[in-house]
Amino acid sequence: MSRPAAAVQRVIKAYDVRGLVGEEIDEQFVSEVGAAFARLVRDSARQVAIGHDMRASSPTLAEAFASGVVAQGLDVVHIGLASTDQLYFASGLLDCPGAMFTASHNPAAYNGIKLCRAGAKPVGKDTGLTTISDEVIAGVPDHNGPSGAVSHRDVLADYGEFLRSLVDIGGQRTLRVAVDAGNGMAGHTTPAVLGPISSVELSPLFFELDGTFPNHEANPLDPANLVDLQAYVLETGADIGLAFDGDADRCFVVDERGKAVSPSAVTALVAARELQREIGATIIHNLITSRAVPELVAERGGTAVRSRVGHSYIKGLMAETGAIFGGEHSAHYYFRDFWGADSGMLAALHVLAALGEQDRPLSDMMADYQRYEASGEINFTVADAPAVVDAVLAAYGSRVHGIDHLDGVTVDLGDGSWFNLRMSNTEPLLRLNVEARTPEGVQEIVDEVAGHVPSATKEPA
């Protein structure tokens, strides 16, 4: 059956499929998406791996998607409960396309699908989602050939073993590691990955799988959702705290003082470790990570390549350049050894290995990678984003040392200060990121930019 274009395009977004269950996404809709995805990949694939998170709607939607796939003649391998990076692992291990049912950090009423081709290669707007959207809108006729078969395979233990094989964690001091799973999929994967490590004493927080998120939103990018972990680190005397989002593909770090560690500093640390084993390698960083990242990469003999924000751009550059590692400000970390895909758990293993092989506390160790102060991402609700950007640029005038338009507008103010303004692809938001030498310098720039936003509604990303 055909569907209204506006309704489909509201749910099939630039990077994934996401919407309100029952209103925007239901079993019939995801079955049609499954069928369109099967048609997209069937020239090069015989089966599709499907995983799902702990949301109440996820198992049913995953089954509906599978029905659409098998109706097109492809087989389905259900891996069951999984983190998104566990689904990527299955896609790499089985060399087949994959579909992960999750709405990541969105509230319980939402669900969605993250899609990839064989080897965890991303499917985005320009690499398949537009085709899927067009076919769902048009209502492509059913396939007339034989249906595919359905099987089940548990890859959780294999996933944990594979991640541990990529990071040397032997012979290190014992670390007490507090982990806030936020009632998301890290409660499922953390015991399988960190549990077998003898030098890790695990202190779990909110490991019960619960898609209603009874304790806090599973979005550690919002500082309010780190408060419980920060208190827990101090309460347990942990050496480090790790917080994961709902589908556990992003990892945020808290030091032994209960202070959040910048994802840019984590990017720099992992980059330095990867450059130790492959001198001269390429490191990808998006344009709103700290300038400390390309500086440290250059100092260690690597090549830093700057990217637009978004996993499809990072993964594309990873493949194009053969980069060994890539990092984003949002705590997505990408590894060549993980099919170029992102894994917060693998990044966590690198941080644990670095901490365990020396005697300093985490705060001291991470100070080596922290050179600037940052605002974090600030969203402004605006009616006319281009007009606001023009007003800001006009106000800065001759104070601008450099400007580029790789993603929105990035303005270099000299003395290590810069800001980026970019429009959201899906919401009436203008996103601001600022970096400067001091907290006062950051605040001065934030205030000046905000002064040009009519009736500014400001909130953290």
From TrEMBL:
GO molecular function, one term: phosphoglucomutase activity
Keywords (A to Z) from UniProt: Isomerase, Magnesium, Metal-binding, Phosphoprotein
Keyword Cell membrane carried by entry: no
Ranges of residues in domain Alpha-D-phosphohexomutase alpha/beta/alpha: 11-132, 158-258, 268-372
EC nos: 5.4.2.2
Family annotation (Pfam families): PGM_PMM_I, PGM_PMM_II, PGM_PMM_III, PGM_PMM_IV
Domain of life, source organism: Bacteria
Every Alpha-D-phosphohexomutase C-terminal domain range: 377-450
Name of the protein in question: Phosphomannomutase/phosphoglucomutase
Species this chain originates from: Mycolicibacterium vanbaalenii (Mycobacterium vanbaalenii)
Lineage: Bacteria, Bacillati, Actinomycetota, Actinomycetes, Mycobacteriales
Gene name for this UniProt entry: algC
